[in-house]
Design goal:
Blueprint: H1 17-25, H2 63-86, H3 91-123
């Protein structure tokens, strides 16, 4: 039984999706796992310092921020509801707990989630990671 791969070419699909995303989540190059993925907090390095893999053409855009909002929102709302049901904390006490946890959780997760998205794009040969030029189709013919 043959597997279905993104891009349709089995020869191109030598990249493990889970391994690439995990390496990206650890802020490492999705190709070799050695070089640093980021130059600054959210600025992806133009290329891997260890293996030379080009990273400049990634297009993570807003997906990492949406995923972080989704993850942190579920954790904070679930935690808030659990604490509210089991204790009698006042409004200011809840604010003192949940606002800092939301901010810290978002900052802590943003870089690893962006790295995982870059790893996903690399593993699936998206946005120039497959060797071909990324072409925008702004006005498709009818």
């Amino acid at each position: 039984m043959s597997e279905i791969h993104y891009g349709g070419d089995a020869a191109r699909n030598d990249r493990s999706l889970i391994r690439s995303m995990w390496r990206g989540f650890l802020c490492r190059c999705p190709h070799c796992g050695e070089g640093r993925l980021f130059d600054r907090f959210l600025k992806v390095a133009p290329e891997c310092s260890a293996c030379g893999e080009a990273m400049h053409h990634h297009r993570a855009d807003d997906l990492p921020a949406y995923l972080v909002i989704f993850i942190v929102g579920h954790i904070v709302v679930g935690g808030f509801m659990g604490v509210e049901m089991t204790s009698g904390l006042g409004l200011w006490q809840h604010l003192a707990i949940w606002v800092p946890l939301t901010i810290i959780g978002s900052i802590v997760l943003l870089q690893p989630v962006k790295g995982a998205v870059v790893g996903l794009q690399w593993a699936l040969h998206m946005h120039g990671f497959g060797g071909e030029e990324d072409v925008l189709d702004d006005h498709p013919e009818l």
